[in-house]
Amino acid sequence: MEPVQSTGILISSANVEGTTVYNRTGDTLGSIHELIIDKTSGHVAYAIMSFGGFLGMGNQYHPLPWSVLKYDTNMGGYVVNLEKEQLEGAPAFDAGAEPDWRDRSYESKLRDFYGVVAS
Amino acid sequence: MEPVQSTGILISSANVEGTTVYNRTGDTLGSIHELIIDKTSGHVAYAIMSFGGFLGMGNQYHPLPWSVLKYDTNMGGYVVNLEKEQLEGAPAFDAGAEPDWRDRSYESKLRDFYGVVAS
């Protein structure tokens, strides 16, 4: 039989998208724009965080490994252990210039930056 | 170190949402409305398929275990081993009447109907 991968609290992608992302000192870093899913395993690999810009113009998008996002019920958003200054050096892309997700070297860059390992 | 759960082909949730769902004889069953994610594991547990209605009115929503959806590149959509008639007896909800995802018995009903097991 096919497995259904549900062991904990279930949330809708519609509720994740738009949720604010904070750093550990409570500064707003951005908000979740969309999720990047591993088609084969059905795992959420990355959450794309958007910030800056006005009415979607000039926005910058940062892919964050899903595992670095911790939901904080008091904040009502995700908390990431990342300073604003660090974010400036983080892998990012402009609106309309989405990375090629088939490019495994882009993923290596993300893993190296955030100190995560491939599972 | 935190793991990043990426082993295969990556797709954006924005691309999954709106994708047509077919049965094995090529009939359109509906389209993906949103994804239901296990917050703890980061796994996509269910895809909510919508069908019927007009301009979002009178739509019915069917939660499908992610594992029963197979992407078919020729069809350009997901294929599910389910007849239209079977869908009429499947767990579903109306717009604005989303199930309580904390209710584990609702999940049991879904697993029983689709013949999937909890992982």
What's the average pLDDT of chain A?
Answer: 85
Can you tell me the residue ranges of chain A where pLDDT is under 50 for at least 5 consecutive residues? none
Strand content of chain A: 35-45%
Terminal Cα span of chain A: 24 Å
State the major sheet of chain A.
Answer: 7 strands, mixed
Question: What is the count of β-strands of chain A?
Answer: 10
Helicity range of chain A:
10-25%
- Quaternary structure type: homodimer
Structural class by secondary-structure content of chain A: alpha+beta
Counted by DSSP, the helix tally of chain A is: 3
Shape designation of chain A: globular
**Largest interface in this structure:** A-B, 47 and 47 residues
Order of helices and strands of chain A: EEHEEEEEEHEHE
Q: Radius of gyration of chain A, rounded?
A: 15 Å
Cross-sheet strand order for the largest sheet of chain A: 7-8-3-4-5-6-9
Write the layout of secondary structure elements.
2 copies of one chain form a homodimer.
Chain A (H helix, E strand, L loop, with lengths): L1 E3 L5 E3 H4 L3 E4 L4 E11 L5 E8 L8 E6 L4 E3 L4 E4 L3 H5 L4 E2 L9 H11 L1 E3 L1
Parallel strand pairs in A: 3-8
Antiparallel strand pairs in A: 3-4, 4-5, 5-6, 6-9, 7-8
Describe the structure in your own words.
Two copies of one chain form a homodimer. Chain A is an alpha+beta fold and 119 residues long. Helix content of chain A is 17%, strand content 39%. Chain A is built from three helices and ten strands. The first copy, chain A, has helices at residues 13-16, 84-88, 104-114, and strands at residues 2-4, 10-12, 20-23, 28-38, 44-51, 60-65, 70-72, 77-80, 93-94, 116-118. In chain A, strands 7-8-3-4-5-6-9 form a seven-stranded mixed sheet. The radius of gyration of chain A is 15 Å and the shape is globular. The two termini of chain A are 24 Å apart. The model of chain A has no long low-confidence stretch (mean pLDDT 85). Chains A and B meet through strand 1, strand 2, helix 1, strand 4 and strand 5 of A and strand 1, strand 2, helix 1, strand 4 and strand 5 of B.
